[in-house]
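Recap from last week: sequence in, structure out.
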Amino acid sequence: MDTSARTDGLRPDRAAPGVESGRPTDWALRPAQPVDVEAIAELRATVMRPDLERLGRFDEHRVRQRLRDSFSAQHTSVIVADGAFAGCVTVRPAEDGRWLEHFYLAPGLQGRGLGSAVLRTLLKRIDTDGLCARLNVLQGSAARRLYERHGFTVEIQDPIDVYMVRRPGAGAPEADVRAGP
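Predicted structure tokens:
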């Protein structure tokens, strides 16, 4: 399936223009479309591979198929940085709040503040509604530190997953003056 119509022909393994030497200068969230699923599945495989291999759980087909099976364009946003496909995030309604899922950034954009900016924006929206935010992260994943900096705490864990929760207003997100919605 050709996804270029919705991802502007940009692949998740290429850094957005203007961010190779620093932080993205402009970013936005746009609603995902059904045709985005393959680009997002490929990004998921790329981003999760090191952690899944470390845990002995990487499967070339399964890593993509799990995304395809759970993809919800209705609840997913594509992250665009400096005009290029940069990642995605799903915010799914749940009984007691919101689940953050499938939060992936292209490897070349990680560690530059974009993930924090996106997360702050999402958490402000969730806090406005007075809801808890929940997510799970793989054991040993560097992403856990990002979530902890934004007020998430461990609720329960097993040998593979760490389930985290953030109560409304915990670690209140500060304004991101650089860019964003």
